[in-house]
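Researcher: Here's the sequence for the chain we discussed earlier.
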Amino acid sequence: MKKKHLKQLVANLPKTPGVLGRNRFFNSAVLVPLIKKKGEYYLLFQKRAAHIRQGGDICFPGGKHEQTDKTFLHTAIRETHEELGIDEKDIKILGQLDTYVAPIGAVIEPFVGIIKKKAYKNMKIDKNEVEKTILIPLKFFKEHKPLEYTLAHEIHPYKIDENGKKNVLFPVEELGLPDTYKKPWGNKRHEIWVYKYEDEVIWGITSVIIRDLIEKYGDDNE
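Model: Thanks. This is the structure I predict for it:
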């Protein structure tokens, strides 16, 4: 490596490290909406319409980061407006939680904001995307620990289709790689947290964000 190339490398190193290979992931942003009622804070959730992807899941408002979005915060605000009809002027952004890189191949940027009570009462839900909204006291998540489960993730170098035919996805033999990669490998264990509130179940990415929020919220007695 020539000296000029080394200088160029140093100049191109990020001032603030990001997510390596971000463009290979599904990039999204969500708003974690807080609503204050009678001196108590609540989290606002939405239940996805049954006919869309991941229908029936409970989540925060948000979605895919589009090229037209200037920032991830813009994505979260735009999606909140599209799904719940809440305007940007009625959202006070408090800050951002840590970036979450999910095992399913998605990067999520969560932002925390307070929704004005008037805006909450006048919400216009997009029924094509949202079945209903759910308001849960923040203290519920502080007082109730989630159920914990474990899933296993494996990497498969091939798939067997419905006709029993083997479709090679990664040509291990042709590449001359060790035999261990000729069959599924990894079996990575992944913890899943589940909250049950009345008749609703909250899990997946949403439960990860809730846990992070609660940890940062601290203890009321402190």
